[in-house]
């Protein structure tokens, strides 16, 4: 029982209650929206790049790539990427290229005369094209 006298029209202050709200949930990770899927779409179809070292080797060894050869090199990198390769040796005609598959960067390039008696290290795959 309350013995206090309250003036007419007095509204008592009551504690504010907050309605029960659910915690915001992170959106479900779907295969369509996953970071890896977006990254794959971004990288897919992108032309391989050449490192400064590879550019120097191409110039020094007079290796000129045609648009068709660049397309074949891109396709080769796509194929080894599907197999999970990280560093690959791509042999195309008389030339060879060591490629960082993940970054899609040609690390170095060799012509036929530099292929003989050469040891390739730090590669986990090789692809030989006609």
CA radius of gyration: 31 Å
Largest sheet: 5 strands, mixed
DSSP strand content: 15-25%
Decide which structural class fits the backbone. alpha/beta
Helical percentage: 25-40%
Which H/E pattern describes the elements? HEHHEEEHE
Global outline = rod-shaped
Counted by DSSP, the helix tally is: 4
Write down the domain tally. Answer: 1
Describe the structure.
The protein has 130 residues and is α/β, with parallel strands linked by helices. The chain has one domain (35-129). The protein is 29% helix and 19% strand. The protein has 4 helices and 5 strands, in the order αβααβββαβ. The protein has helices at 35-43, 52-60, 67-82, 112-115; strands spanning 49-50, 87-92, 95-100, 105-110, 125-129. A 5-stranded mixed β-sheet has the order 1-4-3-2-5. β2 (87-92) and β3 form a beta hairpin. The chain starts with 34 loop residues before the first helix and ends with a strand. The mean pLDDT is 81.
């Amino acid at each position: 029982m309350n013995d206090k006298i309250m003036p007419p029209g007095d509204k008592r202050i009551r504690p504010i209650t907050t309605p029960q709200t659910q915690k915001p949930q992170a959106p479900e990770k779907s295969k369509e929206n996953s970071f890896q899927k977006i990254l794959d779409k971004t990288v897919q179809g992108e032309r391989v790049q050449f490192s400064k070292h590879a550019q120097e080797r191409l110039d020094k060894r007079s290796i000129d790539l045609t648009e068709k050869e660049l397309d074949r090199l891109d396709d080769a990198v796509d194929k080894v990427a599907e197999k999970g390769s990280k560093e690959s040796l791509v042999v195309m005609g008389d030339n060879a290229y060591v490629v960082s598959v993940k970054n899609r960067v040609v690390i170095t390039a060799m012509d036929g005369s530099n292929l003989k008696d050469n040891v390739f290290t730090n590669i986990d795959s090789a692809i030989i094209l006609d």
